[in-house]
Amino acid sequence: MTPATTRPTADPRRLSGVLAPVLTPFRADLAPDPARLVAHCRWLLAHGCAGLAPFGTTSEASSLSADEREALLDALLEGGIPPGRLVPGTGCCALPDTVRLTAHAVRRGCAGVLVLPPFYYKGVSDDGLFRAFAEVIERVGDDRLRVYLYHIPPVAQVGLGAALVERLLRAYPRAIAGMKDSSGDLANTKRMLDLFAARGFDVFVGSERFLLENMRGGGVGCITATGNVNAAAIDRLFREWDTTSAERLQDEVNAIRGAVEKVPVIPALKAILAHHAGDPGWGTLRPPLVPLAPAQRDALLADLARLGLEMPGLGG
Amino acid sequence: MTPATTRPTADPRRLSGVLAPVLTPFRADLAPDPARLVAHCRWLLAHGCAGLAPFGTTSEASSLSADEREALLDALLEGGIPPGRLVPGTGCCALPDTVRLTAHAVRRGCAGVLVLPPFYYKGVSDDGLFRAFAEVIERVGDDRLRVYLYHIPPVAQVGLGAALVERLLRAYPRAIAGMKDSSGDLANTKRMLDLFAARGFDVFVGSERFLLENMRGGGVGCITATGNVNAAAIDRLFREWDTTSAERLQDEVNAIRGAVEKVPVIPALKAILAHHAGDPGWGTLRPPLVPLAPAQRDALLADLARLGLEMPGLGG
Fold it and tell me: What ipTM describes this predicted complex?
């Protein structure tokens, strides 16, 4: 396995560390709430996040229209969030939507984009997936574009395998910057690291459970749902992964993660934020997601209190 | 099983028979081609289709932006396709997109809309799916709305079960008009017919393979991919389902379907259309779909020639 120190990437704009796929706040009428989003992003950047990946799975991005996604990204930038800290999700089922959102993010100076494959059709060929990414890269046509491939087969059902990554890296060595591996399969992460990390392909894992192993294998961090509520502790693990504290820090973040994963994760994170921010409105989700039942929520919050989760300054 | 004759629905606007989920033609630059689409729709209505379901799975609808879908529907209407023959697909992952496309179709007088559930998140609850459909119906807020639920678990992975249909029918007995059952599971179709057909819930099967059984159980027709190329024969089966010719007609349409299903169906149908219309441009697909390999295409066309498939007047 390639040690981290031999990675050749020297692009100073490349992000590493903990990125949060930022939760999207909704008003009671289900409209997105840009002001709450900006406030949460500021808090995250001040409390452990090296960067932010708005419009990920945790963000209910697929439940937002392209117009809403563009408007929210603009609101973040107008709210003072530095574009160099942003890797917005831009992958949609429809090529024109993906091209539009990707071009917008690049024009605004975002550090990169996190791109799902088109996910409606199942069992599609690598030829078709290659063409999907190639069309986006060619149509955006901007040297600043940095694409992080978003591999999340448990949700998208359409995955991105090593042969496809190889082909994309050969065709677009500058544009293809890395992957978010949300397979939950450490063997897949190790394969990506072994095959591609030495060529400047930055691997983020999709859960902090795999952060230590990812760093040991030459990865660069994690983009994790629980980054919304526990980024400081995960960031400490990221910074101390090569110290004797690492295993203990990994166990600690795993304990928080385990409590959250007992229930549906996105509603859980919104309930935690609602509680710690003293803002019940944070609990609102767009369908098809629904809030936790009150008993689930109370048990979750009790678990997390026992584990010592704190979110200082939130909602303050 | 409820015989067809006892169905209480007397709404003269309800469609029955063969509906084609219309293939979407693309130009070489992958832009949709409204003129070709209108021409194909006219041909379909003159050759066996009782109605058209543009923007279905076969239409690569999820590969189109909401703007493109609206513009294409407008082009169909401006091209003289009667709105009363149209049941456009309007279900997207994002609530605002589904509301927008549904409201647009209703305003334009379409006979109904075919609505996928939001399909990104998997394993969602019936509560969440109920809320997704309820929000669309309430936000569109138009008595003319007729929703056909689109159940296609092999692709969407998110299905619509009997408990959900029951709940929707109780809450919105006027708006919920029926289902396209593309499960490929005749037992599911029979369950929907037994539970709901007598209450005016119109069941279309998603493949003509099940058309005879659907009609015998009280269904109203099929919305089938191969309606794009073989609607006249499928329509004859629909009209003669209760005659002694029915089994033979079912076997005949099954033979054509079997030839098409040997290869990926959407590229196959586009290849057939390209061939019979003498218009190679019909073969273009948006990624992630890709054309058939030449050998696949040639074998398909040879099979269909042997089976006697004709498309008179196409491209003429």
Answer: 0.95
